[in-house]
Amino acid sequence: MDILSIKNLTKSFGKTRVLDDITLCVPEGSIFGFIGENGAGKTTTMKIVLGLLQADSGEIYVCGEKVRFGMTATNRHVGYLPDVPEFYRYMRPREYLRLCGEIANLPRELIEKRSCELLELTGLSGANKRIGSFSRGMRQRLGVAQALINEPKLLICDEPTSALDPVGRKEILDILKQIRGRTTVIFSTHILSDVERICDRAALLHGGKIVLNGTLTDLKASHKTDALRIEFATAADKTRFCENAAPELQNGMECTETEITLHARDIAAAELAALQTLTQHGILPLRLELLAPGIENLFLEAVQ
Amino acid sequence: MKAFTAFCKKELLESVRSFKFLILLAAFTLFGLMNAMTAKVLPDILNGSDLGGLTIQLPEPTAMDSWAQFFKNNSQLGTVVLVIVFCGMMANELNRGTLINILTKGMKRRTVILSKFTVAAALWTVAYALSLAVTYAFTFYFWGGETLPHALPAFAGPWLHGLLLLSLMILGGACFGNFFGTLLLTGGVVLVLSLLNIVPKLQKFNPMSLAADTLYLLSGQKTPADFIPALLICVAATAALLMGAIVLFDRRQV
User: Fold this and answer.
1) Which is nearest to B245 in space by CA: B162, B176, B163?
2) From edge to edge, which strands make up the β-sheet containing A253-255?
3) Are B2 and A102 a contacting pair at CB < 8 A?
4) Is any Cβ of chain B less than 8 angstroms from the Cβ of A86?
């Protein structure tokens, strides 16, 4: 079942069309990476899903219920972590979580129980000081805690790691990993390594359109332009290989002084042909490596 | 209702921890002290001062002079303090984005407006009542108790005027989403109403007349009936401004 489904969503700011007829589904239980460069429209999409911004056209369903601008009925299923979460700085974390729980209409005992669990999860159990004195990383972790207070089916995180140092990033990603399976997570980012670390599905928003969408495994498989890299001991070995390589290898060959990279659709056949050439001419490479496509290459290719 | 109560508690906590409540209490207590003191001492100071041969002979002060100070201070300094303390109550939340977490928890936007107004009105009521009580105590001490005719409508006037200002600041916040836009709107409306109050024919309908002119009820120069049109307009305008704030905020993209 899809926990979120976006159909033909369009949104313009003035004359700039930020979202151009995007359609997207997020299956239940996934950690969904929503990728796009700065200003691609990720936050706009998320804010429309939360009813904070009004769409020009299109429909959005959360848990099968239609989202309406300004109406917050669907938000009872959703937890939201803004990119820079803002809190009442004069409050302490437990007081803030109590406020959030009361607004979400949770019973008092449950609020206390959830607050303890979430402060433990986010490593803030001992931080009984005012939020105003929190570091950015602590505020981000409190942001996760407040977003999870009502045990949402869907957690929407808007660039949760962008403004953090490596330690802060790891802490947030670890928290998101821990809630995998209990809550579906949509995680917008432009940091592709974070997507590879925790997401099982991803979509790329570019030019107002979804240009890639699927599981990471499928995306890698369908956009396979795998490569084979051979490193030679000497430049002479490399030249000998190039001169004697089969014609189908010659087409997609990139050379440096002692290294060549072969590109081919059928990388297994290319690898076999390369090994034959090496054996036939008695060339011993230093290294022969199959290069799997990284997500970074995949997305760079998609936006070019 | 639970969300309303929770947000009211948050507003109260905010007013205490950000010292807004303390500022209100201190300022209006000070006004209360100043009212009777100024009325009592000012004539003595002026009578005793050497003004280069010019002699000013002021009559002996009365309790009415103290109440005149009360209405003057409330309508002038009181308005300034009220605006400074409450101008950012809606605007700052929108400007800083603190409402995003709250609204995405399922809080109705109208509940935000209504709880903010409720708490601001309660704080204003406490501050105003304190100022009134201190003025009364000192006036009683200096001049003894005397019956004040139409006391309830006379003192209700500035209080209602304060509520009107609060609803105006909430509307300004919902409309502009920043402190200075709100300040400009509130200041602009107060200025226009003050200018209109110069026109005698319009005074009867002007909510601004409730801020200071209800003193004339205590002095017997006017009757409560004279203020009914302004009072009705003030109450209606407060309700309309709050409704307007709700409608605007419902449509606002945050």
Assistant:
1) B176
2) A253-255, A259-263, A227-231, A287-291
3) yes
4) yes
- Could you tell me which residues come within 8 angstroms of residue A55 by beta carbon, excluding any fewer than 6 positions away? A9, A10, A11, A19, A48, A69
pLDDT 10s digits, A6-44: 999 999 999 999 999 999 999 999 999 999 888 889 999
**B-chain residues within 8 Å CB-CB of A76?**
106
Question: What is this structure's pTM?
Answer: 0.83
* A72/B103 touch (CB, cutoff 8 Å), yes or no: yes
Cα B132 → chain centroid: 12
Split at pLDDT 50, 70, 90, the class of B51 is low
Helix (H) or strand (E) holding B173: helix B151-176
Q: Is A151 left (phi over 0), alpha (psi -120 to 50) or beta?
A: left
Instruction: Scan for tokens 């699927």, then name that residue.
Output: A214
- Would you call A304 helix, strand, or coil by DSSP? coil
Q: Are strands A16-27 and A2-13 parallel, antiparallel or unpaired?
A: antiparallel
Name the minimum distance, in Å, from the CA of B185 to any CA of chain A.
Answer: 25
Would you call A78 an interface residue with chain B, using a CB distance cutoff of 8 Å? yes
CB A3 within 8 A of CB A184: yes
The answer to whether the Cβ–Cβ distance between A88 and B14 falls below 8 Å is yes
In angstroms, the CA B61 to CA B42 distance is 9
- CA B208 to chain CA centroid, Å, is 11
Place of tokens 């009220």: B82
Q: If you search the block for the tokens 């309908």, which residue do you land on?
A: B205
Q: Using CA atoms, how far apart are residues B55 and B246, in angstroms rounded to an integer?
A: 58
How many secondary structure helices (H) and strands (E) does chain A include?
A: 11, 14
Q: Residue B104: closest CA among chain A residues belongs to which residue?
A: A75
Task: Show residues of chain A in contact with B104, CB under 8 Å.
Answer: 50, 52, 72, 75, 78-80
Are the C-beta atoms of A189 and A162 separated by less than 8 Å? yes
Is A52 close to B14, i.e. CB distance below 8 A? no
Angle between helices B20-48 and B63-73 (to 10 degrees): 140
Distance CA B72, CA B216 (A): 12
3-class state of residue A149 by DSSP: coil
CA-based nearest residue to A130, from A80, A84, A171, A87:
A87
Substitution target from B9, B101, B119, B249 for chain A, most A beta carbons within 10 A: B101
Q: Is A71 on the interface with B (CB under 8 A)?
A: no
Residues of chain A found within 8 Å of residue B96, distances taken between Cβ atoms: 86
Q: Which residues of chain A are under the pLDDT cut of 70? A: 71-72, 223-226, 292-293, 304
CA B97, CA A85: separation in Å to the nearest integer? 8
Q: Does A72 touch chain B (CB under 8 A)?
A: yes
Residue in chain B lying closest to A155 (CA): B104
